[in-house]
Each structure stands twice: as C-alpha cells, then as structure tokens.
Amino acid sequence: MASDDLMVLQKVQDMMIYGYPILARFPKVEKFSLAAAIRNNIDELLELTIAAEKRYMKKTTLENMDIANEKLKKYLRVAMELKYISFHSYEVWTAKQVEIGKMIGGLIKSVNDRSKS
C-alpha cells in the first residue's frame, strides 16, 4: 500500500508541474479566482495524498482525495470551456487527473476490501 501511496504522490506532483505554468497564463482577471481555485484544489489534493500516506486509518482521507480530484475535473472543464486553457492542454491535464482518480479508486477499493476481511 505504501508504494501505491508514493505513486499517487508522484503523479500529483507531476500534475502540479504541468499545470502551474498553464495557470500562470490565465487572464489577469481570473488569476485570483478560477486559477487560484484550481491551484488551491491541487494543493489540497497534494496535502491529502501526504496525509493518506502517513495515516493508519485512510478511508476518510482517500474519500476526501476522491472529492478533491472530482472538483479539479470540474474546474478544468470550466477553464477549457471559457478558453483559458487550450483543448490540448485540457486533454493532457485531464488524462493526468483521470490517472490519479483511478489510483485513488484502487486505493479506496483496497482499503474497503481489507476492512471486510
């Protein structure tokens, strides 16, 4: 389980490295609203990933990670529809976000299976 946590952490960091330069190019009027909301959401996802790695009881933290990841999905869609990010950037970013979501889902399933046995 710990190596899975580390993989998710690395994927979140990779997504941050990809996304932050894109957020820096948002229009000035959006830098302190939508761009800030996306950045805060990614930061929250990173914090929750670190917390899940350190906690013994992970279920609630993993569920919160899943919620943060879903929020990010919605924010990215809005940014793309408002044309603040290109469709290509949206595709690449959401591919990273979906991969993280699948990993989170796998971790949740693993924790649920362990609690049943």
Provide tags for this entry:
single chain, 117 residues, mainly alpha, de novo design (two linked rop proteins), 0% strand
Give an overview of the whole structure:
It is a single chain. The protein is an all-alpha fold. The protein has a single domain (2-20, 31-116), classed as de novo design (two linked rop proteins) (Up-down Bundle). Helices cover 83% and strands 0% of the residues. Helix 1 runs antiparallel to helix 4 (87-116) and helix 2 (34-54) packs antiparallel against helix 3 (59-81). The protein is elongated.
* Low-confidence runs: none
Beta-strand content bin: under 5%
Give the CATH architecture: Up-down Bundle
Distance between the termini: 16 Å
The SSE string, one letter per element, is HHHH
As a percent range, the share of helical residues equals over 70%
Number of domains: 1
Structural class: mainly alpha
What sort of overall outline do the alpha carbons produce when their principal axes are compared? elongated
CATH homologous superfamily, by name?
Answer: 23S rRNA-intervening sequence
CATH fold-type name: de novo design (two linked rop proteins)
Rg computed from alpha carbons, rounded to a whole number of angstroms = 15 Å
Instruction: Calculate the mean pLDDT score and round it.
Output: 91
Q: What's the CATH class, please?
A: Mainly Alpha
Number of strands: 0
Main beta sheet: strand number and arrangement?
none
The helix count comes to 4
